[in-house]
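Note to self: keep these together.
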Amino acid sequence: MQTHQYIYRKANMADRDQIWEILRQGIERRKKEGSRQWQDGYPNIDSVTDDINKGFGYVIEVSSRIAVYAAVIHETEPAYENIEGKWLSDDDYMVVHRVAVADEFAGQGLASLIFDEIEKQVQQQQIPSIKVDTNYDNAAMLRIFEKRDYQYCGEVYFRGSARKAFQKIFL
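Structure:
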């Protein structure tokens, strides 16, 4: 992993188009890898606008450019209520969705770096855990979850597709 000088911060509306371009790159990368994840019109520009308006959007900025984006949501995720399996706990949790790295920063460890920052944030806010999900064929995200000790809990469904669900307990 390269060492970067970076800023982790909440996204604002001035970042929207740059974030959407990063997500578009992620959508294209998933397509080239043969994945069905993000190939159904989601996420889209409205997802980004909504994230920013609700205060869920976070970025890592490197050299004044947004390098990675994630939605960090402290709300109940309805899809997580119907897990096929069992969560490690039913306590309060943070959800991380829509993680995407800009093409020019891909492969530099920045997705792990944003998880470092999100995990610090969750612990500072004394939220007991993070719950996440990804497509069964998103090898890069599955590796991140494994390396970071997220525990596989079962499957959840989004827009009719099964997703692998994970949880990491902090408190």
